[in-house]
Specification:
330 residues; single chain; Thioredoxin; electron transport; Thioredoxin_CS; 8% strand; transport; disordered N terminus; Thioredoxin-like_sf; five-stranded mixed β-sheet; alpha/beta
């Protein structure tokens, strides 16, 4: 096969039918059991000739399945596949993506008359119903998925995609989360949680300018939404901490004089910037306990800013708020 040859297959109506006498068609497919609805992590997978019946034919009876025919030597495939994966994850389960390496498994592509790659075929109800050839722009991929999977239920799709992004972040897979957020914003650019999520990922990766650019895209009437305000507070605190100097010097000052509240305050700012939230909170609480009037109650005021940046349900916020209440009202 060559990625320069014209693609002769047609995907409209009932065209593009494969020979149902081959291994993945005919009576064999009735033996494949239905599976439970796929989790976010199962939306993209590789398949083989032996598993094609389960992964594509049978699965397409539950929801549309896109099959990406590719090969390691195909340059346009390397461009298309990541875009497909991102768009499918952002669609939140409306479609699945199954990838087939035609070098290792050529028979299915041959049955479908594929002469050029990359080629993507959409299956519904066990049959190929639509498709495209070549590396197309992301916007066209999204339109294709909407066409195949249906435009209905846009809000549930976004909700499921946001949940998948949160799951990826919790698992430490920030690249997948960023891809999902990015794809969501292509479809629904005013999605506040996606703006905040992508902005925070960029900021945590050291790309402050990128984070600012993402935040700037928020609608004017939503710029003060809590997730965006929390990210701006986090960025402001980090900027303050960056100007405070060497934490080792601050710790030396505290060792020499435990009542050096300015050193303790500055150290708390640095600790917060490094992600040491509990230590930062404990240092500010120590100032509140020792001298509530210091710097016009500045330690307590800064701690409240930390709470805003961390989020009201953050573990450090909840723990420090309990300690602060104990100090103030005991």
């Amino acid at each position: 096969m060559s990625d320069n040859n014209p693609f002769s297959g047609s995907f409209g109506g009932n065209s593009g039918q494969y020979d149902q006498s081959v291994q993945y068609g005919g009576a064999d497919r009735a033996k494949v059991p239905l599976r439970e609805a796929p989790a976010a992590a199962d939306l993209v997978k590789d398949t083989t000739t032996a598993t094609f019946a389960a992964d594509v034919i049978q699965e397409s009876r539950r929801q549309p399945v896109l099959v990406d025919f590719w090969a390691p030597w195909c340059g346009p495939c390397k461009q298309l596949t990541p875009q497909l994966e991102k768009a499918v994850k952002a669609a939140g389960g409306k479609v699945k993506l199954v990838k087939m390496n035609i070098d290792d498994h050529p028979s299915v592509a041959g049955q479908l008359g594929i002469q050029s790659i990359p080629a993507v075929i959409a299956f519904k109800d066990g049959q190929p119903v639509d498709g495209f050839m070549g590396a197309i722009p992301e916007s066209q991929i999204t339109q294709f998925i909407q066409k195949v999977g249906g435009k209905g239920g846009g809000a549930p799709q976004i909700t499921e995609a946001l949940a998948a992004a949160r799951e990826a972040r919790e698992a430490g897979d920030v690249q997948t989360a960023a891809d999902i957020y990015d794809a969501i914003l292509e479809q629904a650019p005013e999605t506040i949680e996606a703006i905040a999520g992508l902005g925070e990922i960029l900021f945590d990766a050291g790309d402050s300018q990128g984070a600012e650019a993402v935040l700037a895209k928020a609608p004017e009437d939503k710029k003060d939404a809590p997730p965006l305000a929390a990210l701006r507070a986090k960025m402001a605190l980090a900027a303050q901490a960056a100007a405070l100097g060497n934490p080792a010097e601050l710790e030396r000052r505290l060792a020499a004089n435990p009542n050096d509240h300015q050193a303790r305050f500055d150290l708390a700012m640095v600790q917060n910037a490094r992600g040491d939230r509990m230590q930062a909170a404990d240092n500010l609480l120590a100032i509140v306990k020792a001298d509530r009037t210091w710097n016009d109650d500045g330690a307590r005021a800064q701690l409240l800013k930390f709470f805003e940046a961390w989020g009201m349900t953050d573990e450090a916020t909840l723990a420090a708020r309990r300690k602060l209440s104990s100090l103030l009202f005991s």
